[in-house]
Design goal:
Helix content is about 0%, strand content about 45%. With about 350 residues, the chain is mainly beta. The strands form 7 sheets. Strands 13, 16, 17, 19, 22 and 24 form a 6-stranded antiparallel sheet that branches. A 6-stranded antiparallel sheet has the order 15-14-18-23-20-21. A 3-stranded antiparallel sheet has the order 5-6-7, with no helix packed on it. A hairpin with a 4-residue loop joins strand 3 and strand 4. The longest helix has 4 residues. The radius of gyration is 42 Å and the shape is elongated. The protein starts with 6 loop residues before the first strand and ends with a strand.
């Protein structure tokens, strides 16, 4: 076979034993035709791929185009990169760049490798700062909350009837008729520990984070006696509100402009029927007949049976709150002796600066 020109070509072989009537077979193979003087690359044009870190050239031994890498270190991307193993790698723009610390321990100054410029980013929220007196939040060192009250109930004696009251827990009760109309209130009194009513210290209800003892809050089933106009549970339709709480009286000037946060663990007890429950922070104005001026709540009626952590917050930036009463704790409303118990633990009341 003689090629008519240099370059790619094919040779087809047809085999038959009957003149091509029925039995035949065909085989085609590619060939590369070279000039008569024997130079395989004569007339061969190799296409450039566009990769400036590779070179395309004809192999004189085969006449085929082959790709090879240019020398490592060759400039590429208009001088912004360097060829390495056939790829254009961006130059390290951060080489020899020193980013100065701006003095804020809640931010980090790092060189941006794509620009070679120093960028500032926030460290992880919660990072300790200011000699462990604060924590980073969105690039700012916020002072740690000031703990006003903290109790995990482990040191209180469940058999001591005054254990809760000695820790500052109080109780107040209200009675409403079946439509929610107010009938009367009574208290505040010292919260009981062993009376079987209102509150107590439970044992054996905690998880790994709650320890051996917990606060239990439920209804006042002694309220308020049959055969009177104030019958409470004995009426069957009256609603008995039971409030067990801590009190700061009066709110001092040092609290103004801050946020009060009440954090606690909680899980479901035997609460049932039509009983409702909640945790709260409230303020009362003694100069206005103890009118409620704030009441922030989290519903605890349908707590899961597993322990969880819950938070209530109140902004104390209103200067009129100075001198009022701040209360935080737990409340139930039950009727007709419906079960009302929930378990609470790890109570913390804390102050932190109010965000501007």
């Amino acid at each position: 076979y003689t090629c008519t020109s240099a370059g790619d070509d094919t040779v087809t072989i047809l085999v038959t034993d009957d003149g091509g009537d029925y039995c035949m077979d065909m085989h085609t193979v590619p060939v590369f035709c070279v000039p008569s003087d024997g130079d395989p690359c004569e007339g061969v044009i190799c296409d450039d791929t566009g990769n400036e870190c590779t070179a395309e050239a004809c192999n004189p031994s085969t006449g085929l185009c082959e790709t090879s890498n240019v020398a490592d270190g060759t400039d590429c991307d208009q001088g912004a990169g360097t060829c390495m193993a056939g790829s254009c790698e961006p130059d390290d723009l951060c080489l020899d760049v020193v980013c100065e610390d701006d003095g804020n321990e809640c931010t980090a100054e790092l060189c941006n490798p794509s620009t070679g410029l120093c960028d500032t980013s926030n460290v992880a929220d919660g990072t300790s700062c200011n000699d462990d007196t604060g924590a980073c939040d969105a690039g700012i060192c916020e002072p740690n909350p000031e703990t006003v009250y903290e109790q995990n109930f482990e040191s209180l004696d469940p058999a001591n009837p005054n254990a809760l009251s000695a820790d500052g827990w109080l109780y107040f009760g209200n009675v409403y008729d079946g439509t929610g109309g107010f009938k009367f209130g009574f208290g505040p009194f010292a919260a009981p520990t062993t009376s079987g009513q209102i509150s107590g210290i439970a044992t054996g209800e905690g998880g790994p984070d709650q320890g051996a003892q917990q606060l239990v809050v439920f209804s006042n089933y002694d309220c308020c006696g049959p055969g009177t106009t104030n019958e409470g549970h004995f009426n069957g339709t009256d609603l008995v509100e039971t409030i067990v709480f801590q009190e700061i009286n009066p709110i001092p000037a040092s609290f103004m402009g801050q946020t009060f946060t009440f954090t606690f663990d909680a899980k479901r007890g035997n609460i049932g029927g039509n009983t409702t429950a909640q945790a709260f922070i409230k303020t009362l104005d003694p100069g206005a007949g103890f009118a409620t001026t704030n009441n922030v709540v989290v519903d605890t009626t349908n707590l899961p049976t597993d322990w969880g952590t819950y938070t209530v917050t109140l902004d104390l930036s209103d200067p009129l709150l100075e001198g009022q009463i701040l209360q935080f704790g737990f409340q139930t409303i039950a009727s007709n002796f419906d079960p009302a118990g929930n378990f609470y633990d790890n109570n913390v009341g804390a102050l932190s600066p109010t965000a501007p």
